[in-house]
# Entry
Amino acid sequence: MPLGNIPMPPMPEPRYGGTLEILLEGGWRAVYVDEEPVPEGLPERYAYALVVRGEHGYVTERDGERGWRIVEGATGEGESGEDFARRAALERTGASVGRTLLIGYLECEAIDADKRPTGERAARPLYVAVADEVGPVPEGSGYHRRRLRLTDFQNEVRRRYPSLWRYLSRGLDRYLILQRTGQLAG
# Structure
């Protein structure tokens, strides 16, 4: 049934036309940016890292909690996302990271005025952290880990991070290509 000449209110332009916005916990809205590096002046307050070595990926779980996760969390004061990925991989999985691959980053904007000033901007970089060596999880770290074949690792990450999977999978694909072509050696 046609609407005739019913006046319609103007539709607002989408902020990121043709781009998927992701709602993150903590009152943040994010858009994935496939660029390197993270722009200067955009603080890196949180980071994600897929810890891998050879044909395995590592997930971690805090002692006393349920739910396997990749290495993720708030960066320390003055700490970059890459520095966080290296430190947290060692603390939570026992992995000494030799190389990091920046997948991209989430450009975030605060949208919940109860949690932080609305409009505040930050970046959440996504990394593949390639471990040279994986030892035991340090005593007293409060974490334990699981080593999974890459196919199982991909399934676990897909299940736990459905809104980020399309971006994280790009990083795993890149890792596999570099590994199989020998470009990660040395």
The CA atoms of residues 112 and 153 lie 33 Å apart. DSSP finds three helices and eight strands in the chain. The first strand starts at residue 21 and ends at 24. The mean pLDDT is 90.
